[in-house]
Amino acid sequence: CHSLPEPPPDESEWRALLAPFYAEEGVAEGLPPPLRRPFDAAMAAAVEAVRPEIVSFHFGLPEPTLLDRVRAARPDIAVSGDFIVGFPGESEADFALLLEWLEAAELDRVGCFKYEPVKGARANDLPDHVPAEVKQDRFDRFMEKAQAISEAKLDAKAAAAQAKEQAREQARVARAPAAPRRSTRAVSSAPSSAATTTSRPVL
Q: What's the average model confidence in pLDDT over 149-172?
């Protein structure tokens, strides 16, 4: 919901730039964790090195290519994000871009909130507030898209797990020793000629 500048090299300068945004959320100035910053190429490199279990991004939409990098570094990583729809000035084109990004990013966990005025927030004074019915419509469409993505990812994981199990079973069967072959000999049930021939006495 905010457009922030690129983070400067100095962490203290970056925190100073973020201070107004954290103040809106009631976070004490100077306390935000160092890694709570826009998900950029530098953050992707940090994730590649640390390989955490979960990555959550803040302040903007990271390029899907950056998410590809962290997923390559740790395939089982879960990527999450929180979104606000209906922010003052949000157009239908803006929202369509969000849905397009969401489909490309294929997040594992998402949260979505409808913008509501907050006491003391600077956004209260912005023009072009979005009507409540439009916010609700966009919220519903966002969650529908997120649900479809989640179901597709679960189906893909289930199919991959099934294929892996089948491959494991095939390998087990291939390694199993072959059963010994048993040799059998057919025995005729017909009586032999020697047994059935009787000698006739010579008169």
A: 87
Residue holding tokens 């998402």?
Answer: 110
Residues 23-43, mean pLDDT to the nearest whole number = 53
> What pLDDT digit, counting tens, does each position of 51-97 carry?
766 666 665 677 778 888 888 888 888 888 888 899 899 999 999 98
Average per-residue pLDDT in the chain?
Answer: 74
Cα(124)–Cα(141) distance, rounded to whole angstroms?
Answer: 25
Q: Which residue has the tokens 């004074």?
A: 125
Please count the other Cβ atoms lying within 10 Å of the Cβ belonging to residue 67: 22
Q: Note the pLDDT of residue 188.
A: 53
Q: Is the distance from CB of 44 to CB of 69 less than 8 angstroms?
A: yes
Q: Three-state secondary structure along the chain?
A: CCCCCCCCCCHHHHHHHHHHHHHHCCCCCCCCCCCCCECCHHHHHHHHHHCCCEEEEECCCCCHHHHHHHHHHCCCCEEEEEEEECCCCCCHHHHHHHHHHHHHHCCCEEEEEECCCCCCCHHHHCCCCCCHHHHHHHHHHHHHHHHHHHHHHHHHHHHHHHHHHHHHHHHHHHHCCCCCCCCCCCCCCCCCHHHHCCCCCCC
